[in-house]
Amino acid sequence: MALSPLTTTLNPQATQGAFGINAHGPGYIEVNGERFQESLILHPDHGPTPLGRLSAAELSAKEALQVADMKPEILLVGTGSRQVFLRPEQLVPLTERRIGVECMSTAAAARTFNLLVSEGRKVIALLLIEPHAPTP
User: Fold this and answer.
1) pLDDT of 135 strictly over 50
2) Residue 4: predicted pLDDT
3) Which residue in 48, 102, 122, 128 is deepest, having the highest Cβ count within 10 Å?
4) Could you give the CA distance from residue 100 to residue 73 in angstroms, rounded to a whole number?
5) Contact call for residues 86 and 94 (beta carbons, < 8 A)
6) Shortest CA distance to 112 belongs to which of 61, 46, 44?
7) By CB neighbour count within 10 A (0-12 exposed, 13-18 middle, 19+ buried), where does 18 fall?
8) How far, CA to CA in Å, does 88 sit from each of 75, 114, 134?
């Protein structure tokens, strides 16, 4: 299978059996060898929770509460091909529980998630598939 020039395959990190991100590209994220073509919440111990097609602008308190209930130290929000900051009202359930939030491109979020998991940190990734991104 030939990879698209926009596909990124990540070097595996030592994740002690946790879920990790293998690759990502326009319209997908690959977790432990399984390809997802929709946005998802990724917990290193419990795996992915698909969210359907969802953009940063569409995030609601529902998704923030899902993450907050998992009790991470930090939430990495991968917002697609470019960094998009969330609105303060989208962050309320997280900031009330003292959960740090970092918004970055999906590429940066994938690399950072794998690194933090390998260090044993309590991290969750919210990885957004851009609604206009073509699916391979």
Assistant:
1) no
2) 46
3) 128
4) 6
5) no
6) 44
7) buried
8) 15, 26, 30
**Helices (runs of H) and strands (runs of E) counted in the chain:** 3, 9
Q: What is the pLDDT of residue 5?
A: 44
Q: What is the pTM of this model?
A: 0.84
Q: Is 114 exposed, middle or buried (0-12, 13-18, 19+ CB in 10 A)?
A: buried
pLDDT(121) > 70: yes
The DSSP line for 42-99 is EETTTEEEEEES--GGG--HHHHHHHHHT--SEEEEE-SSS--PPPHHHHHHHHTTT-
Distance CA 119, CA 123 (A): 10
Tokens of 112: 């950072």
Phi, psi angles (nearest 5°) of residue 23: -160, 165
> 22, 9, 8: which is closest to 114 by C-alpha?
22
- Tell me the pLDDT tens digit for each residue of 38-69: 999 999 999 999 998 888 888 888 889 999 99
Contact 102, 76 (CB under 8 A): yes
